[in-house]
Amino acid sequence: xxxxxxxxxxxxxxxxxxxxxxxGARPDVLRELLAQGDLPNLARWVIEPGGxxxxxxxxxxxxxxxxxxxxxGRYPGSANxxxxxxxxxxxxxxxPVARWRAARSxxxxxxxxxxxxxxxxxxxxxxxxxxxxxxxxxxxxxRPGAHLMPVRRAMLGAAAHYFGGYGALDRAVAxxxxxxxxxxxxxxxxxxPGPDGLTHLHHPTHPSVLEAYRHIDRALGEFVRCVRRRGxxxxxxxxxxxxxxxxxxxQDIALAxxxxxxxxxxxxxxxxxxxxxASVMVSGNGCAHVYFSASSDGQMPAELVxxxxxxxxxxxxAYRDERGAVMVARGHxxxxxxxxxxxxxxxxxxxxxxxxxxxxxxxxxxxxLEASRATRFPDAPRQLLxxxxxxxxxxxxxxxxxxxxxxxxxxxxEHRSGHGSLFAEHMLVPIAASVSLPDVxxxxxxxxxxxxxxxxxxxxxxxDGVPLSRLATLEGALA
Length: 479
Description:
Elements: E1 17-22, H1 27-35, H2 40-47, E2 51-56, H3 68-72, E3 85-87, H4 96-102, E4 103-105, H5 114-117, H6 124-127, E5 131-134, E6 147-148, H7 150-163, H8 166-180, E7 187-192, H9 194-201, H10 207-228, E8 235-239, E9 245-246, E10 249-250, H11 253-259, E11 264-265, E12 278-283, E13 287-292, H12 302-309, E14 314-320, E15 326-330, E16 333-340, E17 343-350, E18 361-363, H13 365-372, H14 380-388, E19 396-400, E20 404-405, E21 417-418, H15 424-427, E22 428-433, H16 447-454, H17 468-471, H18 474-478
Parallel strand pairs: 1-7, 1-8, 5-6, 5-7, 10-20, 11-12
Antiparallel strand pairs: 2-22, 3-4, 8-22, 9-21, 12-13, 13-19, 14-15, 14-19, 15-16, 16-17, 17-18
Helix pairs in contact: 2-10, 7-8, 8-9, 8-10, 9-10
């Protein structure tokens, strides 16, 4: 049970909190719409009383997995959920049903399994029993009846995915949101999938995507009108789980392995592959976990790893070395990451793959976040360490270059934009709040403990995030 209660100083307490997750929102697009006056409700009710910052999300920067920080205060690796697709090595040697179960995918019939696969402490829903959620894949801890429109979400979500009807889905979310204003609740989690889905079909600034942002703003204005009639406004957080960028090239890692004569297990139709030598699990589609069948000496196939790292479109690769550190590769460049009581050490061995300088450095976690957020790969050291700490992660984790994803054009519908990778267009996200935001680097994982503080609820020990009240001071950020 949580034992430590932190009280807010940089954030006011409120009786209610609303977290609005605009799936796939890019901070630059949001700022441009704000500058044009297209998001008046976001400006008036959220940013003017509080502020807006650009934070970093998690790797893989993918829907569902990147919701874990908001609801659990943990990284995906800490929660033992390394992607929207991953491989259960223990089950892959079984029969057809066991192999299907082992090739985990939260895109389809196994979507709800994410709730039982998460292995960490309580969710925000657990800690604030009077919680209500709308259109979220993560529901663990919600009381019966507190997850609104689950059937409509499934039906409208499938129609939106295959036929582009994200407007109908977002309208249903808005309708449910307005209806819940009169109910008794303390924490409200509202997900609008439209911007992400439409971006996949088009590009981040397509007119339909921009109209989705405007629709969400109008929905916010209507919700404010509803709750103002009942008394004090809640604290608002408007956030995103990841960014997005245009896809110009598909580099299907699984098909590359097959072309090299390596039988490869993969989604959607090859999860029953017998005796595969490799498995590829893709998220976003800019992240891929590659698993290799165990060799007699327990080592990864070094030559195959090098070929994968040199594939066109592979931006960054990472794997565990024999000493428990994380090796980082970008083409021929190499560096080593490790963490101990002194902080995180980045040791360039050949060049500087993460753009942090050619000399070894050791910094506390938050200082390294500050140092990395202006690079091409913001917060990459922490994100690679957290993901490779997960036993369910692949032997090799790949992040795509800008303009590339790791699934072929055969995917229905074909992704014209994507996310999931480590570079800035995917990792940087807007964080707007009606409470003050400290002028420091923020992560999405910081918001769960912050919202608990605002509600006066206990904050569990051992979270990966840091409440904003502590980040407001250097001593608190480093504690």
